[in-house]
Automatic annotation (TrEMBL):
The chain crosses the membrane at residues 33-53, 97-115. Na(+) is not transported, but it plays an essential structural role and its presence is essential for fluoride channel function. The gene is fluC. Fluoride-specific ion channel. Important for reducing fluoride concentration in the cell, thus reducing its toxicity. Belongs to the fluoride channel Fluc/FEX (TC 1.A.43) family. This is Fluoride-specific ion channel FluC. NCBIfam families: crcB. It is found in: Cell membrane. One of its GO terms (molecular function) is metal ion binding. It catalyses: fluoride(in) = fluoride(out). It comes from the Bacteria. The lineage of its organism: Bacteria, Bacillati, Actinomycetota, Actinomycetes, Streptosporangiales. Na(+) binds at residues 69, 72. Keywords: Cell membrane, Ion channel, Ion transport, Membrane, Metal-binding, Sodium, Transmembrane, Transmembrane helix, Transport. One of its GO terms (biological process) is cellular detoxification of fluoride.
Length: 118
């Protein structure tokens, strides 16, 4: 049952990642990986909220492992950063690393605290 919940959450998360990434790229352009940053920070926040709310095993499997696991993408973050550095856009590459990690941790921490408090 847990594997099925992860599969269902993952299917929805993967599709949402594609939709959000495409929409953000369309609005913000491709000079900076705003789409990847958006989905990763969003996923970190959702995971923080779930963990803070102490949801049960089934919800954690569906939403945490499945949905957030498919929504977020560490490998694409790495690839985007490498491409920025390879293209000589060192400042953008560094900003991508700091923003992705910093905003992701901030979103997780704030939503974790909020949902733990509520």
């Amino acid at each position: 049952m847990i594997a099925l919940l992860i599969l269902m959450g993952g299917a929805f998360g993967a599709v949402l990642r594609y939709v959000l990434d495409t929409a953000v790229k369309k609005r913000a352009g491709k000079a900076f990986p705003w789409g990847t940053l958006t989905v990763n920070v969003l996923g970190a926040g959702i995971l923080g909220a779930l963990h803070g709310a102490s949801v049960g095993t089934d919800s954690e499997a569906l939403l945490g492992t499945g949905f957030c696991g498919a929504l977020t993408t560490f490998s694409t973050f790495e690839l985007d950063t490498v491409h920025l550095f390879q293209d000589g856009r060192f400042l953008r590459g560094a900003v991508n690393v700091v923003a992705s990690l910093g905003l992701g941790l901030l979103a997780f921490t704030l939503l974790h605290a909020l949902f733990r408090w509520v």
